[in-house]
Amino acid sequence: MELSDLQTFAAVARNGGITRAAEELNTVQSNVTQRVKALETEIGTPLFERHSRGMTLTGAGRRLLPYAQRMAALSREAVLAARDDGDPKGPLSIGSLETTAAVRLPPLLARFHRSFSAVRLSLRTATTADLVGAVLDGTVDGAFVAGPIEHAELIATPVFREELVLVSARRWKSLAELRAAAGEGPTVLVFRHGCTYRNRLEQILNDFGWPSAARFELGTLDGMIGCVAADMGITLLPRAVVARSEMDGNVAIHSLSPAHARVETLFIRRRAGHPYSALQAFVFCLKQDEVIAA
Asked: What is the pTM of this model?
């Protein structure tokens, strides 16, 4: 069983199809298709169900995936460990919530790059659930996620403290006015499942008596704020993310009780494995700069 076949299989599973997997792997689609078919032939059973919307894992594929991820992560770790002479350099893959990447990370990443220019830093955005999985399987070296996170295999360091707010079109001057006019609830704009902010918003909807409010799923932060500004619905985001839009008069921000509003952003990394110099340098920057924000 070739490691490259397992890596290709995992990329197709992660991306849900051949095209995006080929883009991620920087290869042609025919090569991805060939490697998946070769692996299925070797194992003797289909690993994917093909349909018009892409590819989903079969039962055999779901059972194989954790092993493929661990083998790929171990291979990458072995190479990095062998090359690591104590001088921070080489690749470093960091994951982040899109909201954190948009507002909190640019100054930190710029400082890190100036201090450790030999490190090739890459940033991937996803939901908290996906990022936790990516750290555990070694797809990324560390990630900024919404807390709380308690996992025996992870080290979690608090780095940012966010205030979550309800965001609406600017015609709603107060939360009381919005609640009075919303009836069974306004349309709610959410990120996909696995988003901690979405889970927190579900709690708020129940507390406000809006459990049956319509949900509309969006994939980007800019799209989310734009749709709120167009009065399509409301959403829940960190105040720091939407403050500029509020100042520009595009949206209205509504404060919530501390129980609903407070959330910590954590930086997580695996306990096990080689302590890469590049990752240690990144953690050093986090602690040295005291980036925890109110």
From this structure: 0.79
